[in-house]
Design a protein that fits this description.
The chain is an all-beta fold and 100 residues long. 0% of the residues lie in helices and 42% in strands.
Length: 100
Amino acid sequence: MIKVGEEATFVTGTDSRPGTVTAVKSEREIRIATCPYEIVGGPYQYGDEKEVEYNPREIDPDDGTIYTLRKNGRWIPKGSASDSGYAIIGYRRYYMDPSF
């Protein structure tokens, strides 16, 4: 069962951004907000796997975007097509793919 405060990652194509679950409305509907982060160890260049510090802010249950669990098992923004970006619950990751 997903819980408020759980780590999340937004995925768009091959890029990833960190997030936090801010509300659980049901087993199939949650709200996720972006999580502030800081690149550690120098400036980030596309494709680098640098250490990242995540700084979750205070949780506001009205903050973020509503995601629904679809038949394909992915968390998709409510009202969006299944082939759009999605969220993964359980870890945070920041990565920008230099290929695009």
